[in-house]
TrEMBL record:
Domain of life: Archaea
One Pfam family in the UniProt entry: LUD_dom
InterPro entries: FTHF_cligase-like_sf, LUD_dom, NagB/RpiA_transferase-like
Record-annotated LUD domain positions: 32-179
Source species: Halopiger aswanensis
Protein's name according to its UniProt entry: YkgG family uncharacterized protein
Length: 221
């Protein structure tokens, strides 16, 4: 587990955010609708009841010898998958190399290169019932891999990230996920965060490139 590991429980009571609006899990019928609508966009969907099974599935997505990278994701931390990545058993995890780089320019270059990893894992910030998957981060070093860069993209989210429509999904990012991430960033980096880059995946042209792993639990920011 990373030393800068925080969950929403560390911040939510001190922030003016609305978990009742933005952090509830959907009913079974809604979940089935979401899965169908995401699949209609040529994105493979897997649904798991718990993080342990999801973590095992994620590990199985890494070919031997592959270069792997991830965006910072509280969900991946919570299910223990960041420990799997750091162990780098049978594959190359670019995040380990980044931690060894002291030069800012070199680190920035390597982060750009890492968006073209063989497999890129990231957490989704919101999912619309209509099937769009949304993600945001300040620099774009994570969501930069989403549209094209990574050969294989694996997105992970708790079902609490599902919202009724695209507009509400964007609101979730701005009004719920961002304040939580801003609080985390202030603790870890000494500065706040912004929605610098926001990506909405609406259709995948490349068969089997992108998958969404849903966990029926309240996870992440």
């Amino acid at each position: 587990m990373a030393p800068d590991y925080y969950t929403k429980a560390d911040f939510v009571d001190d922030l003016e955010v609305d978990p009742d609006r933005f952090d509830d899990r959907p009913d079974e019928e809604t979940l089935e609708t979401v899965v169908s609508n995401v699949e209609e966009r040529n994105i493979v969907v897997h649904v798991f009841d718990d993080g342990d099974d999801a973590r095992d599935h994620l590990a199985d997505q890494i070919p031997d010898g592959a270069e792997v990278m991830d965006g910072h994701s509280t969900t991946l931390e919570e299910i223990g998958f960041t420990d799997v990545l750091a162990a780098a058993d049978g594959f190359e995890y670019a995040g380990n190399a980044l931690e060894e780089i002291d030069d800012d320019e070199e680190r920035s270059t390597r982060r750009r290169e890492a968006t073209t990893a063989d497999v890129f894992f990231d957490g989704a910030n919101a999912i619309a019932e209509s099937g769009e998957i949304l993600g945001a981060n300040a620099l774009g070093n994570a969501v930069g891999a989403w549209p094209f860069g990574a050969e294989s993209l694996v997105l992970v989210a708790g079902t609490n990230k599902i919202e009724s429509d695209w507009e509400t999904a964007v609101e979730r990012i701005r009004e719920y996920a961002l304040p939580l991430e801003d609080a985390r960033a202030r603790e870890v980096y000494g500065q706040g965060s912004v929605v610098g880059k926001l990506v909405s995946l609406e259709h995948e042209r490349v068969d089997d490139r992108t998958q969404l792993v849903l966990i029926d639990d309240e996870l992440g920011f």
